[in-house]
Amino acid sequence: MKCPRCGEDGDRVLETRTSQAGSVVRRRRECGKCHFRFTTYETIVRMPLIVIKRDGTREPYDRTKLLNGIATACRKRPVAGKKIEAIVNDIEDNISDRYQTEIKSSDIGRMVLERLLEIDEVSYVRFASVYRKFTNIDKFAKELKKIKKERKWKKRYR
Ligand SMILES: [Zn+2]
Fold first, then answer.
1. Are residues 80 and 25 part of one domain?
2. pTM, full prediction
3. Whose CA, among 3, 47, 49, 139, lies 20 to 30 Å from 94?
4. How far is the CA of 4 from the centre of ligand 1 (A)?
5. Are 81 and 63 found together in one domain?
6. What is the 3 state secondary structure string of the chain?
7. What are the pLDDT tens digits along the chain (158 aa)?
8. What's the 29 CA to ligand 1 centre distance in angstroms?
9. Ligand 1 centre from 34 Cα, in Å?
10. 57 in a structural domain
11. In total, how many domains does the chain have?
12. What is the domain range of residue 112?
């Protein structure tokens, strides 16, 4: 951390304290050159994420809603709750890595489907029928073929 007085980049941490139930870290530092003491705060960066729904309306991203949606598709299937959480974590990481602040609900759906296909095909089909609102079986078969093809491609070039 650059010293606010002399600009030297080399300090010593004198004390570290967490507050607000561990979500804020406060550090007392001392400049290695001029011995000026200063304080820094560390907090978790949370990007507000807005979901654009099919009808164009926007709503804040809801993790619980997504978890429940996947859990419903995986009901009575050999998919552990931890696996479902891992899917959601992976998707959230993916979105935050791209610094996206808005995402289409259909894009989230697609990300879930890609991951479900790797885990359980029955859950995949259930999720697809709800999320994608397939109007006929041909459309659905086409989509399945497309995703399977992409999956093969990814495996080959990964
Ligand atoms: Zn200094």
1. no
2. 0.62
3. 139
4. 7
5. yes
6. CECCCCCCECEEEEEEEEECCCCEEEEEEEECCCCCEEEEEEECCCCCCEEECCCCCEEECCHHHHHHHHHHHCCCCCCCHHHHHHHHHHHHHHHHHCCCCEEEHHHHHHHHHHHHHHHCHHHHHHHHHHHCCCCCHHHHHHHHHHHHHHHHHHHHHC
7. 899 999 999 999 999 998 767 778 999 999 999 999 999 998 876 668 899 998 999 999 999 999 999 999 999 999 888 899 999 999 988 888 887 889 999 899 989 988 998 898 889 888 988 776 655 667 777 777 777 777 776 666 65
8. 10
9. 4
10. yes
11. 2
12. 50-136
